[in-house]
Specification:
inorganic pyrophosphatase (n-terminal core), 5-stranded parallel beta sheet, about 20% strand, about 325 residues, alpha/beta
């Protein structure tokens, strides 16, 4: 790991132009790691462009440099591509086409399902987030300021579920403690990320929670959404936060119909069940306790197949 940090540090210092990207369906860790990397490169007087397949969710526009993120790109010559929080190059969406044109791909990630697609791979599944790994890179390069600190803290904050998930460790708290020396305001981050629901959003969530389904053992709980509400706020984690209140449930599932015969499936679990393995079976991946996939079928078929597989999988664990 130390050698890889040195290799990345040396590559950054010896290169001039950088393409920065992350996975589709952008969230706090993806954007935090991208923007922190951009700020780090600018301090080194490098030329850098953040190019994402998806648009930036409005709740993250408080992050420094977020207005500079591009969703279309005319130039195509870069020395290095920094691919962050992305388990597979295909997860970069349309940006994947650019990756074959760069001289070197640096893959920095914490997903256990990472495919090591880079020329240089810094993958640490024990880290809470890509931002936690990037903090160590900044530490090694002796580069940090208030903008980088805000981006890194936001990524760690969101990917640990406000420091409540099992990926929160002593090392995580050491790092966020150090970041607070740069004037990071946890209240500001919380209010931007979590305090933007409107009354219509809460009504929508209420409909979902009132129609939860359970298997016969009540160890598996799931919700199906036929039409995802048009909102500036990604309600996925809010819905899961309510579902987590259920006593005795080991696996939580959210089925979202995105378009005809295209279902997004998100998984959350207690430590006893590895939902990354479940997601991988259906072509997805992620973390042991938080994963996802997209299934090309109708909503009822997706529900039946996924729940049936989880029942068989959890029975084998007993």
């Amino acid at each position: 790991m130390k050698n890889t940090f040195k290799e990345i540090s040396d590559k950054i210092r010896s290169s001039k132009t950088f393409l920065i990207t992350a996975h589709v369906s952008l969230e706090g860790d993806a954007l935090g790691s991208e923007l922190a990397t951009y700020a780090l490169l600018k301090k080194l007087k490098k030329r850098a462009v953040i190019y994402n397949s998806d648009h930036t969710p409005p709740i993250y526009k408080f992050l420094p440099h977020s207005k500079l993120i591009k969703n279309n790109l005319s130039e195509d010559k870069f020395d290095v591509a920094m691919v962050l929080d992305c388990s597979d190059s295909s997860r970069a969406g349309k940006v994947k086409d650019y990756l074959s044109r760069v001289k070197c791909i640096i893959n920095i990630d914490h997903h256990i399902s990472n495919t090591f697609f880079g020329d240089i791979n810094l993958v640490d599944p024990a880290a809470s987030s890509a931002c936690q790994i990037l903090y160590k890179l900044c530490e090694r390069m002796k580069i940090m300021d208030e903008k980088i600190a805000l981006c890194l803290y936001t990524g760690i904050f969101t990917d640990t579920g406000n420091f409540t998930y099992t990926n929160t460790t002593k090392e995580t708290h050491r790092i966020v403690s150090n970041l607070m020396h740069y004037g990071v305001s946890p209240r500001l981050i919380y209010e931007n990320v979590h305090s933007l629901c409107e009354d219509k959003d809460l009504k929508f969530i209420g409909k979902i929670i009132s129609n939860l389904k359970f298997d016969s053992s009540r160890k598996i709980c799931w919700a199906t959404i036929k039409k995802w509400e048009d909102t500036d706020y990604d309600l996925t984690e809010v819905i899961f936060s309510f579902m987590r209140l259920l006593k005795g449930v080991e696996v939580l599932i959210l089925f979202k119909k995105m378009e005809k015969d295209k279902i997004r499936v998100n998984f959350r679990s207690r430590p006893s069940v590895d939902v990354n393995k479940v997601a991988q079976f259906f072509g997805g991946g992620g973390h042991k306790s938080a994963s996802g996939t997209t299934i090309e079928t109708d909503l009822k078929s997706a529900e039946r197949k996924v729940v049936s597989f989880i029942k068989r999988y959890t029975n084998k664990l007993k």
